[in-house]
Amino acid sequence: MKKRKYIGIEKKEARWGFAFTVPAILFFSLFSFYPIINALYTSLFDKRVLSLAPPDFMGLGNYTYIFSSPDFWNSIRATFVFTLGTFIPIVIFSLMLAAFLTNISSKKMRGVFQIAFYTPAVISSVVAATIWLLIFDPRGLGNQWVNFILNTPGVDQKWLADRTMVQVSTMIVYFWKYIGYFVVLFITGLAAIPPAIYEAATIDGSSKWQSFWRITLPLLKPTVVLVSIMAMLQCLKTFSTQYLFVQGGAPRAPINVITLNIYTTGIRNQRIGRASAMSIVLFLIMLLFTWMQFRFSKSEEVEY
Questions:
Q1: pLDDT tens string 60-71
Q2: E strands within the chain?
């Protein structure tokens, strides 16, 4: 009689764990992997959106075209300017605000501040951009606030007309909308640090500033890496704010990020092959920067 093979409890748990993750893997593959593979395939053809004729195979022709296009390199520049101008302030200020909110003794006040900071994150990007279009109007609150602070009544700051100011305007919108989301992530990371560590440091004579640099930041490293990657990817794929600002009369060139260029090329100009090539380049840029974040941070599991 053949002996029945014994299966350990760990193998059983692993099999059940895999079985429960299969639906999520299939869902993720259908809506993430397939579009990437399809975009890569489409980028090899001269495909038009409304054309019934079979597309002509171009190989790397679309990639050659976009890399020789000044408009595409301007989109690269606009994307990196926006990402640097938004990503760094978001990470720094969200960490500072999270530390500030964590140190508030009153739970009610802490909750009020958390709701106030997080509320813009649940607002649609289109609604947020529309609100700020009204603020940046020459007669809007943007000019009134700045003129009040600088004591320059009646001066138009040209939020949506000047090349530099329109870039700053898009950065302000994204900063306002997403900082609350990352503040909540940092608060979660700070809450996971045991208070006993701070109590021991205080007994040893450590100040709050020393505790922050020598205890909080090292133990918060995994959260910092997570927030950095999420904020960077969010900035690289920005679209709705720039699109609505251009529709509102702002100059296109300074804020013509890659995603906006993809939309213009694929939908308006109907060059879906070129737009797919741009999307593949953007995907590779995001993949590269994500790898660099992990490579240089060397984040490992933190033990308290």
A1: 889 999 999 999
A2: 45-46, 56-57
